[in-house]
Amino acid sequence: MNADKLIKLGIDLRNKWSGEVKTTCPKCAHQRKKKNDPSLGVNIDDGVWKCHHCNWSGSVNQYVRPQMREVVKTEGIFSYFTKRGIKSETVTHFKISEGAEWMPQDQKEHKVICFNYFLEDDLINIKFKTSDKMFKMVKDARKIPYNINSIKDQNYVIICEGEEECMVWHQSGLTSAVSVPNGASKNNNNLEWLDSVYDLFEGKIIYLATDNDEPGRKLAEDLARRFDSSDIRIIRFTEKDANDCLKLYGEEYVARLFEEAEHLPVAEISSASDYRSLIEQYYESGYPIGSHVDMSETDTHLSWNRGELVVVTGIPGCFDKDQLVHTKRGAIPISQIKVGDYALSYNEEKDINEWKYVLATPIHKNTPDRMFKITLKDGTVIKVTENHEFYTGTGYMKIKDFIVPLMNGEDLEKNT
Q1: Is the separation of the CB atoms in 347 and 354 below 8 Å?
Q2: N or C: which end of the chain has fewer CB within 10 A?
Q3: Can you tell me whether residue 72 is helix, strand or coil?
Q4: Beta-carbon neighbour count of residue 143 at 10 Å?
Q5: Run of H or E including 346
Q6: What integer is the mean pLDDT of 269-275?
Q7: What are the percentages of helix, strand and coil residues in the chain, rounded to 5?
Q8: Are 60 and 2 in contact (CB under 8 A)?
Q9: Where are the alpha helices (DSSP H) in 172-301?
Q10: End-to-end CA distance of the chain
Q11: What are phi and psi of 136, to 5 degrees?
Q12: Least confident of 38-47, 82-91, 207-216, 333-342
């Protein structure tokens, strides 16, 4: 996840895991009079940053940028599209190009059709296709939807499966159409390409026009989970895809399929008794481990299963904001700890104290009413909430569980 990568570079994300943040620059802040000046702008979703004071900038994701090939002039390529019902002017509109490319499938060079992936005016990627349907994209280039520029200022978008499908929809009068870059799979489809452009789809009606086969239906299912179900429409094909419908029935028929799109079906309604055998299975074998999200703070404790609502609750255990903590900068109040500090921590497995890198600094505002003040023999004072846990040598115990029984109703400070 980008947030973890940025944190490892010493960038304080101020407890944010997505969106944009302004923060101090780890490269120049310590040299400046205004050490707390948030001169570093960070886009966590894109994994990029730039300091407006020292100009330090970079990206955790370095992508290759392809070179544009020559625009199609070969008559044979125009003939290929004509046989598929796609007109020459449509080919020209989509800036289809041609070239020769080495293909990994048979380790040979082939003449290829080049489908160019643009974002605004920038060429981001190219998909190469041979006459016998071998495909590849530019290695290490960014993956985005094909024809993404077409959805700007539109109130709908058609998501289809293949660049030529986009061309068919455009030719049929439905110009706001994009294609997934990866094709479809009967297993889980990789939709990471959607994350960086998701905001372009917001506020639009999403028409899913994937192929009428098992991989296409699975792709539609996976895509539907990424959007609000009330915004989704399903386009049903009488043939395999829009291109087959175009060849057999014409552009008006394809346009009518769009008009006849259906709302996403309501999922089956179940009763509690329907899950009896599943619950018994969990009881016998344990709850299944789901997917992780590459977020270091949660992955060791949580996993996520499709179709489930996860509720995390509990009373936080905290130190007082002025509690001193040993760091490499000295003993400082815990409220002044920053991401990037090293705090002295106890390693249970090695039975030693060691420095640990601070990844985040969460603040619990809704704490219990009672605070306990503990004075150790050496005079050290510790102030914590009643639910804070202490290591006893054999395990962890909440402070209230071993102090309260000793208090007998008296003030804690009289017993320390």
Answers
A1: yes
A2: C
A3: coil
A4: 21
A5: strand 342-347
A6: 79
A7: 25, 25, 45
A8: yes
A9: 214-224, 242-249, 251-259, 276-285, 296-299
A10: 46
A11: -160, 160
A12: 333-342
